[in-house]
Amino acid sequence: MKTLIIVGAGGHGRVVADCAEATKQYNSIVFIDDCYPQRIKNLHWDIIDTTNSFEKYITNADFIVAFGNNKLRAETLEKLSNTKANIITLIHPSACISEHANVGQGVVAFANSVVNIGAEIANGCIINTSATIDHDCVVGSCTHVSPGANVAGGVSIGEQAWIGIGASIIEYISIGSKTHIAAGAAVTQSTQDNALYAGVPATFKKIINS
After folding, report:
1. Per-residue pLDDT tens for 1-51?
2. pLDDT tens digits for 149-201?
3. d(CA 35, CA 43)
4. Which of 22, 68, 119, 190 fits a 20 to 30 Å CA distance from 130?
5. Active-site residue among 12, 44, 100, 135?
């Protein structure tokens, strides 16, 4: 039993903490965030220090990054990876992750999420509540698959993409890096990088400046 330090004390961080509690692997769960010392609590969990203080804790704690913003999460994971910090992968007990899937470091898979056989989930991804990733998908680093989104088999998703709540992606197409798929969209064709797609079927709306 160890301490888990969650980097980022926002709403997403609370869900990460709740997920960690459900695993019953940690006797202490705390946050570091730049809101400290103005805030010292995130619900019943303590906020103990600022974000850049993590190196003083690396010998006696595990770490998970809980920034919902993909870019910030990627930057923070890189900083942690350049030290000896132990970055964990956090799987909710109700998640269904195939033993034949490959799930990277710093991933969080929330309640009732599914990752099926042959899928590859790169470092730092969020597989949110009840999201499904079907067989043989490849999900790039620090992508967020939002609650209730469904990704069919053989889909490739680039790094730091965002798949909106309730979105659906048909089989064997590609979603570009840093591309946003709007809530409820149905994606039936491959997309370009750095773009927003919305609608049923989803169509290109605009370029996103990364």
Report:
1. 699 999 999 999 999 999 999 999 999 999 999 999 999 999 999 999 999
2. 999 999 999 999 999 999 999 999 999 999 999 999 999 999 999 999 999 99
3. 14
4. 190
5. 135
* Rg of the chain, C-alpha, whole Å: 17
- Note if the pTM is more than 0.70: yes
Strand order in the sheet with 156-157: 102-103, 120-121, 138-139, 156-157, 174-175
H/E stretch holding 80 reads helix 70-81
Q: Across residues 61-79, what is the average pLDDT?
A: 97
Active site residue 92: no
- With tokens 């888990």, the residue in question is 4
How many angstroms from the chain centroid is the CA of residue 177? Answer: 15
What are the chain's domains? Answer: 2-88 (3.40.50.20), 91-205 (2.160.10.10)
Q: CB neighbours (10 Å) of residue 3?
A: 15
